[in-house]
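User: what does the whole thing look like in 3D?
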Amino acid sequence: AAMRSRAEVDATLQTAKLNPAELLPAVHCLSFGPQAGGGECCLLQLEPGLCAELEAGRSLVIRGEKDERAVLCSKNKTYDMKIADTSNMLLFVPGCKTPEELNADPASCNIIHSQIAGFAKNYWELRRCRPKLKKLRKLLMEDPYEGPDTRKDQTSTFSKYTTEDLLSLIQASEVEILHQLQVIDACKIEGCWRILDFDYEMKLLNHVTQLIDSESWPFSKVPLCVCLEELGSLEPREMIEHILLSYGRKYVDDAGEVFFEMREDKICRAIAQMLLQNAVKFNLSEFEEVWQQSVPEGMTTRLDQLQGLALVDKSSRPETIFLLKVEDLPEDNQERFNSLFGIREKWTEVDITPYIQDLCAEKQTVGALLTKYARSSMLNGVKVYNSRRPIS
Amino acid sequence: VTPHLSHSGGTGALAQWVLVELQGEVEPRQSRELAGSLLGDLHYTCEGVPVLIVGHHILYGKVVQLEKPFAVLVKQGGVPQPSPAGPHSHYTVTALIKTKLLFKTRPKPIITHVPKKV
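Assistant: Here's the predicted 3D structure for the full assembly of 510 residues, as structure tokens:
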């Protein structure tokens, strides 16, 4: 289309009965660019912080496979994406100046021919969400590491996952993924992330606790180098160090030597899991006795060490305890609550909290979740929560 | 599918565009194709009020600083790349939009002068 001339612009102003004296001298003649109708452009509404990230040159990534709802990830956060419709038409115009910009630049052209690059009646809206990390454990559990001696690893045809693989498969930001790998005690073996098979993990832990016992070390001061010396013939050194890192807190003393402060709660918890996984449920008092006897001498077992791992049934006679791992439960809020109410009809807040804590969004409380997904009532003077819907 | 929103230029500042928000639909005159056709003239009053003349209408609007800026994404025709997750589809962040010109007022029709009959 022919570009408009100043004369044509002035003629239009006259027809419109607008006084040029009341207007800034510059005019933008807007036309539709060659790609305008193509639909190649779309708008993404940015949450606070994302604009600055883009301007700093960092990328944003959309993640999700065909059967998953797309999420957008920055370096350290994850957002749900949703289309928002607007009843208005949104035109995107490059090179369009605001009054401030025109006033600031007295040399600006009299006529600015601006091409509209595209238009839309909707845009992508973002909402910060919990990273979808359940899949991470699921992928790594496809082929848990059972140690170097097994034939399995050499002939295994299972997929092994590098950091890059995980980044493209998991709907979470890089920082969130790397943090979760640490939380689940994953380790890198030959460039791929692995989770230890539980029995192998317990075998490694047992080597360490037996050594601590025979050397009479305090739990707070376990030397790395002696562990590697003494146990290096039994297991790979990387595995010995890994188990110490998983079950202890690393520190360096004044002499520069590396020690570990063993984590009593985590060790007791792992041993409880080892005992509980062998049966559907246990007599509580019998379990507590066996459990205390099974942990390293000097450690004390407490039921609160088992939050999110096991559940006590106080209504049965005698009282029982059974394994219930929060990581085995659904990731979606409604599905999680359905699952919990399917296991037990009425929950106290104390009992249910470890099983819903991870569902809390930024600044959301357990109380808020319970208000939304459960209904409360009183039972024997105690407040309990049950499902909002009838259990099928 | 892991579309990457990467910065188009690689280095250098992202372009700043402006959003023009209009009510209703924009249809080309004489049902010509949209591409290349004129929309109208955009003026600003000395006070900074945007005035848009579209066809026979005058629209008065206001300049709004967006609380939540927009990123303009442009789809890159499928760049096939081998990966365990499957083919990638790339989007490029072409520009940022921090300002919009909002035209919400009813358009004032321009009544052209009708010559009197003698």
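In plain terms: The two ends of chain B are 72 Å apart (CA to CA). Chain B touches chain A through 68 residues (CB under 8 Å).
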